[in-house]
Amino acid sequence: MKIETTIADAVKAGIKTLYGQEVPDKMVQLQKTKREFEGNLTLVVFPFLKVSKKKPEDTAEDLGRYLAANCTAVASYNVVKGFLNLVIAPAAWVELLCDIDADPAYGERKAEPDAPLVMIEYSSPNTNKPLHLGHVRNNLLGWSLAQIMQANGNRVVKTNIVNDRGIHICKSMLAWLKWGGGETPETSGKKGDHLIGDYYVAFDKHYREEVKELTAKYIAGGMAAEEAEKKAKEEAPLIKEAHEMLVKWEQGDEEVRSLWRKMNSWVYAGFDETYKALGVGFDKIYYESDTYLRGKAKVEEGLAKGLFERHEDGSVWADLTAEGLDQKLLLRSDGTSVYMTQDIGTAEMRFNDYPIDKMIYVVGNEQNYHFQVLSILLDRLGFKWGKELVHFSYGMVELPNGKMKSREGTVVDADDLIAEMIAQARRTSEELGKFDDISEEERSEIARIVGMGALKYFILKVDARKNMLFNPEESIDFNGNTGPFIQYTHARIRSILRKAEAEGITLPERLDATNVEPNDKEVALIQKLNEFGAAVEQAGKDYSPSGIANYCYELTKEFNQFYHDYSILKEPDTNKKQLRLVLARNVAKTIKNGMALLGIEVPERM
User: Fold this and answer.
1) How many other β-carbons are positioned within 10 Å of the β-carbon of residue 431?
2) What is the CA radius of gyration of the chain?
3) In this predicted structure, what is the pLDDT of residue 410?
4) Which of 226, 367, 500, 521 qualifies as a cystine partner to 562, CB 3.0-4.6 A?
């Protein structure tokens, strides 16, 4: 049983004994004692004053005497105004460590069959270009959030919605037909998503040239520059051809659809490689080409029920003025759908597939208004989770200027970023001599683990709501608040444990709490380990991977301070040595469990 639970139960018993009244659990507030005071845990006494009818100091003194006499976990106490500082008995700390040691999945709650079902949508790529740096942050946040929600006892379904239809897709298809010469990923040696992305860029290049020529022609004919450019963008032959292709796609033209399926299949194969490298995946993938018609039908259904209104031009709108918003277009006058309509269709498909209790959308903060509206519309349409859908909104991520620009020179390609991170991890490890006496195969694997760990940790340690600057070189540092620092500490502990085993040191199944008394640094480490469950719970409430990242760093820093001051294997006292080995083993386990919630692997050796 956790020390906090033991003490909380004793406090409630004390209130009953001393003052003859029972108090609810929420009234017992225990917190970590401030560094300037003696003690480990502090009880806030103010909530009990109505029951005790005494001053704060006198109430604290009453409870302190009771706990010292009746709770074996409390060794001594001191009173500071309305706060009762408790010094925890050494044996209680050792027993707590043993309880943590006995739980391999420490910090996680297993989901019961009837646990809430949480669906998390992330990634949401377009099939006209490769994944980029923004997708990297999105995927890492979505995957980590899924692990955290699962660790909090929820059933979780990870989903992706692929934007596989629209004018942007037709642009790549048309460019490939015009200038591709039958090129494929196999003949070009390019990943499918990169190949299609190159044709999207080619379309844009030729389109801009057409617009420039037409604009000059219209201006020469006496048209104002702004009007000329607008007309040129609409009349350029390429964009007209792309729109014609889109119409054919909408009408089910088999030739266009066949090309669309073929080129999308190339993209999906490329995406899968990137997802695998990032260590993320999905339980269910939805496609806009399947959902947009469902959305139109759902809007028409809402229109028939009087939930929406049709304007004179035939367009359909939702009036949100009662909610303090404006009117929102749902169907254009030609009957085509907008993104909001597609999201409604996707929501219906998901709700039919799964009994969702909570829906979390991992989408950038530029879509804040979109999801505010979507929540209202889904609630109107009868989706039980609509009103409480969660938009996990995150900020932009950028690189320092001039670093790792993609082949287009405008966005940072995810594959380039991953490759560079692994290469940088290898260079740094070799410079620091961390690859001595390690095989080439191990070097490659460790470079991958460290490079990806550096990337993921650097992104996830930042509050998701904030914009951030990702510095690849700064992220691969074996000191400070970085992934490699935490990974190296785990590897160091595993090395210590291997040496202990090689020396024939055996550990009892459970430490004898009467044989050893932990020192202050050891107590601080056990107390920090004890906070892991609360950190996981809080990260779930706040939807905050950064909370887990910061916990892992604090635990790692605490261990390194301890390791600097005290020897483990050279400790002559057998009982102390066993305590420190068990302590180290559980720091490594908790680091591994915590980093896994971030999607980060930790190596056995470095």
Assistant:
1) 9
2) 30
3) 58
4) 521
- CA–chain centroid gap for 558, Å, is 25
Q: Take residue 240 and report the two structure tokens written for it.
A: 């007209």
Closest to 563 in 3D by CA, of 588, 544, 592? 588
Which residues, listed in sequence order, are joined to residue 157 by a DSSP beta bridge?
119
User: What is the residue whose two structure tokens read 């005497």?
Assistant: 65
Give me 210's structure tokens. 């057409």
Query: pLDDT, tens digit, for every residue of 547-590?
Result: 999 999 999 999 999 999 999 999 999 999 999 999 999 999 99
Bridge-partner residues for 119, per DSSP?
157, 359
On the 0-12 / 13-18 / 19+ scale of CB atoms within 10 A, 354 is middle
The helix/strand/coil state of 382 is: coil
Cβ–Cβ < 8 Å for 254, 219: no
233 pLDDT exceeds 70? yes
pLDDT tens sequence across 19-66: 999 999 999 999 999 999 999 999 999 999 999 999 999 999 999 999
Find where tokens 């190159």 sit: 198
φ/ψ of 398, rounded to 5, equals: -130, 165
Distance CA 251, CA 259 (A): 14
pLDDT in the model for residue 542: 97
What's the CA gap between 60 and 78, in Å, rounded? 9
Residue 70: closest CA among 14, 8, 111, 118: 14
Burial 160-194 (b: 16+ CB within 10 A, else e): bbbbbbbebbbbbbbbbbeebeeeebeeeebbbbb
Q: Do the Cβ atoms of 16 and 7 come closer than 8 Å? A: no
Tell me the one-letter amino acid at 423. Answer: A
- With a CB cutoff of 8 Å and minimum separation 6, the contacts of 485 are 477, 478, 479, 553, 556
pLDDT over 60 (residue 405):
no
Q: So what's the pLDDT on residue 406?
A: 43
To the nearest 10°, the Cα dihedral for 377, 383, 387, 393?
-80
- Please give the DSSP secondary-structure letter assigned to residue 320: -
Which tens digit of pLDDT belongs to each residue from 86-107?
999 999 999 999 999 999 989 8
Per-residue 3-state assignment (H helix, E strand, C coil) for 334-380: CCCECHHHHHHHHHHHHHHHCCCCEEEEEEEHHHHHHHHHHHHHHHH
Closest CA relative to residue 558, chosen from 462, 493, 463: 493
Structure tokens at 124: 């949401």
Amino acid at 189: G
Residue positions counted in the chain? 606
What is the phi/psi pair of residue 337, to 5°?
-90, 160
Residues 579-593, buried b or exposed e (16+ Cβ, 10 A)?
A: bbbbbbbbbbbbbbb
pTM over 0.85: yes
What's residue 1's pLDDT? 53
Buried b (16+ CB within 10 A) or exposed e, 15-43: beebbeeebeeeebebeebeeeeebbbbb
Give the pair of three-digit tokens for residue 40: 């480990």
Collapsing DSSP to helix, strand or coil, 166 comes out as coil
CA 194/CA 142 separation, integer angstroms: 23
Q: Give 59-89 pLDDT, tens digit per residue.
A: 999 999 999 999 999 999 999 999 999 999 9
